[in-house]
Automatic annotation (TrEMBL):
Keyword Protein biosynthesis attached: no
Active site: 257, 343, 345
Protein name: Carbamoyl phosphate synthase small chain
Ranges where the Carbamoyl-phosphate synthase small subunit N-terminal domain occurs: 7-137
Pathway assigned in UniProt: Pyrimidine metabolism; UMP biosynthesis via de novo pathway; (S)-dihydroorotate from bicarbonate: step 1/3; Amino-acid biosynthesis; L-arginine biosynthesis; carbamoyl phosphate from bicarbonate: step 1/1
Amino acid sequence: MINYIKLPAVLLLEDGTVYHGKAAGKIGTTTGEICFNTGMTGYQEIFTDPSYFGQIMVTTNAHIGNYGVNSEEIESGDIKIAGLVCKNFNIAYSRKQSDKSIQDYFQEENVVGISDVDTRSLVRHIRDKGAMNAIISSEVLDIEELKKTLAAIPSMDGLELASLVSTKEPYYYGNEGAKHRVAVLDLGVKKNILRNFDHRDVYAKIFPAKTSFEEMEKWAPDGYFISNGPGDPSSMPYAIETVKNVLSADKPLFGICLGHQLLALANDIRTMKMFNGHRGLNHPVKNIIIDHCEVTSQNHGFGVIQEDVRNSDLVEITHLNLNDNSIEGIRVKGKKAFSVQYHPESSPGPHDSRYLFDQFIDSMIPETAI
């Protein structure tokens, strides 16, 4: 095998900043919005998270690939990140449970990356300058040529991407004889969310992103789940309409991440693109209903506008981010509908917030049965 890791590669940011390094994964060129994740583990789950579709990932952990790749540790059918920037791209691995090296994995999945980059410097730059588009190339090293390619890449602001990662046909997850039935609107759902439902005696039917409420209702679910996913929530009128219809029918509803933003939009609360977003496994969030702090896993570049939430007569705040006081959770007054901005399925990440799945299950139980 050719040792691609020793070939040169270049990373160019939209503001003209250049980093030189070595090729990782497939030899080629890739573009996307650059972002960073502060997690110290779980790189394979991060790479396969559909919410990262269209984004170039910078990992702050110095070693990527050191424990190899396990075919069971995925959140979707393939790698969803547009590219990878890391310090050390470790081809050799020691974990017996792994199936292959990260180099083989990236080549099989046609993923372009760059290693041997000063990621501490890069993360500081992104943190100060904000999210922006970038290009990685190990086949074209001419900066002026790369600038021309990068200039044609659209901003993430306004992009509708959820329908691109959603299932094309409905499918089922769990035991058909389970106690509860949940309709999942797949905007980029992670597998561990479905696993959490299965562990709670839920039979789920996963529907394509643009499925109407009326079509899902034919299955007679006990509740509705609006998933995580990539892109700008304000560019998804089809999903906003579906959420509005679920609320009008007074059905139990639970939203995570993108689902949280769509629940907000369905209640006339605006969303906005964040300067950097939240991506990592260690974000402190306070549940203000029970006065309890959770350490959470997060991945989002859009959020809800605080002023709109605080002025709303339709929703109330349930969770706040203790780092920046941003809105992390809401519930609709008079409805069995709530959402959180973070990822309680926590794959990877701490398990502090998995009670939210139980809360959703409880909302589907008829009051006469309690």
